[in-house]
Amino acid sequence: MNEFMLIFRHQDGKAVASPEQIQIWMKQTMDWIGGIAAQNKFSGGNGLPFDDARVVWPNDVVTNGPFGEIKETIGGYIIVKADSVDEAVAFAKGCPVLQGDGNSVEVRKIARGDGLH
To answer: Which is more confident, 51 or 33?
Structure first.
């Protein structure tokens, strides 16, 4: 069985939402992750807050924030166990992040000492 990282991309950078909406999204996300964990396919994950972030560039240049030159922000990730990329994609399709316009979930296989294939 392989592990895949599901990377949550938010098109609008910092999402502006009410505390109530954030609570709804958090519950949806915890329920979604709980469904994956119930199948013994959840390996871990973290949210990535927007504060205390820096981007390090060549020549000792450091800029504030995770934004760089992109129009999206990585809001977090989880790692799932799956027999194939298609199974990992099936997990990603249920992610509440996809409710936001322009948001996406990137699915990437994790190389564990077996090269980059």
So the answer is: 33
Interatomic CA distance for residues 97 and 10, integer angstroms: 8
Residue 13's pLDDT band, with cuts at 50, 70 and 90, is: low
CATH architecture of the region 2-109: 2-Layer Sandwich (3.30)
**What value, to the nearest 5°, has the Cα angle with vertex 50 and ends 19 and 103?**
75
Evaluate if residue 117 carries a pLDDT over 80. no
Where are the domains positioned within the chain?
Answer: 2-109
Question: What is the C-alpha to C-alpha distance for residues 42 and 111, in angstroms, rounded to an integer?
Answer: 17
Q: Which residues neighbour 91 within 8 Å (Cβ) at sequence distance 6 or greater?
A: 6, 36, 41, 80, 82
Whole-model pTM over 0.85: no
